[in-house]
């Protein structure tokens, strides 16, 4: 019985086409021009032998690259539950995938910095310091930070958190609301900026608490506040998922939204489990993801990449009404 057939190699293709190994390699890489006649002969030989092309991983390793970009997202479970995070990750993977790069989702554990990555995206983590940062800089690994600390040597992608929150607060103020409370995200750059925008209009807004973008967590957080909400006529949340949780818990306790309580969010994501459209600040999630990925590609190519600040827009929905 004969053994397994050996897979054809580029050397086999070159021999069959009657060209040098370097010419066969250039035919597949496209790094330098090869005559049309030679190219057709090489490709015909490859097709006859069943050779599909060079191993991209081997090529990347020869170039000192892994072909993989890491993206630190804090807790992986949180990222998969947050529709805003998912939309951004989808846009990042769309651009990087088209460029032939893989995307490695990872927590913000410091050990991940030691992986052989072509670049690292630091997103929705919230940490002000990251020991891995120093290691990445020392190894000259391109770093793109999304809505986080503007670390030296990194490219920074952000949105107008404060501007958007202020516009939302002004909308509520125009409706006659004066006693406003807020549910915040965990301590982070977006949390501080969104709260600052709210306080530009309502400096004494009461903080009900902080939690992640999770409906059940928000319901648990605001439950006792809704039993005795005092003079509060509106609750502003720092994500739409939080706002949806407030709406559901308010209704569970017999409060009408927006007649008894106005509720607003941030992000502009779809909330199909609600029968009303939230008043919210819409952020350009796809544009943010594309800008992040384009910054990564530019940094890998050695280009100077500028920071990006994306605009947001107020969208008035059905969850806010006059006080």
UniProtKB/TrEMBL annotation:
InterPro entries assigned to the protein according to its UniProt record, in alphabetical order: HTH_LacI (IPR000843), LacI/GalR-like_sensor (IPR046335), Lambda_DNA-bd_dom_sf (IPR010982), Peripla_BP_I (IPR028082)
Pfam families cross-referenced by the UniProt entry: LacI, Peripla_BP_3
Domain HTH lacI-type: 8-63
N-terminal signal peptide: none
Top-level taxonomic group: Bacteria
Alphabetical list of CDD domains matching this protein: HTH_LacI (cd01392)
Membrane-traversing stretches: none
Keyword field contains Transcription: yes
Keywords: DNA-binding, Transcription, Transcription regulation
Protein name: Substrate-binding domain-containing protein
